[in-house]
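Action item from last meeting closed. Structure (165 res):
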């Protein structure tokens, strides 16, 4: 038990109903889990993900969003009302705003459409932000996928796969 050898990284929303090990029926040691509200990327998240890829050699990163996400809903509300939330919640909303704007530009006005767009954009942003991860994807030693999970049905839908352009 001196080392860990997880087969996947799950980078998901912090929502209390999205406990990765439970919804995917995983055991101890199976998954390296990183979570933030709305799976928003920041330096600590990127550092954790880079560690999983470069030190633990995990071959798969799953970006896990879900329907009726509170962080995406708060961002949709902020964009539509022009009223930003206070404190560091604003920081989350600012980082989700590009996904909401892209959705609205495509006439997709439902929160769950925005959730799918946000999972896709998070995968793109992850590859743009991290040289370590984009190099690992380029070398085919890891893959990054985006998944939208439906809490009520317990179903996961693949919404994007990493591809270096
Ligand atoms: Zn959420």
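Sequence:
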């Amino acid at each position: 038990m001196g080392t860990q050898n997880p087969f996947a990284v799950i980078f998901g929303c912090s929502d209390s109903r999205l406990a990765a090990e439970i919804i995917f029926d995983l055991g101890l040691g199976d998954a390296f889990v990183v979570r933030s509200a709305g799976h928003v990327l920041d330096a600590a998240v990127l550092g954790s993900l880079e560690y999983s890829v470069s030190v633990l050699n995990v071959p798969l990163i799953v970006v896990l969003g879900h329907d009726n996400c509170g962080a995406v809903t708060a961002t949709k509300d902020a964009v539509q009302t022009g009223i930003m939330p206070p404190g560091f919640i604003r920081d989350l909303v600012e980082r989700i705003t590009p996904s909401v704007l892209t959705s609205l530009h495509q006439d997709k006005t439902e929160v769950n459409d925005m959730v799918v767009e946000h999972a896709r954009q998070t995968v793109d942003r992850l590859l743009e932000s991290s040289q370590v991860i984009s190099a690992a994807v380029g070398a085919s030693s890891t893959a990054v996928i985006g998944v939208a999970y439906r809490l009520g049905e317990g179903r996961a839908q693949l919404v994007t796969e990493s591809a270096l352009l």
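Note appended to the action item: The mean pLDDT is 95.
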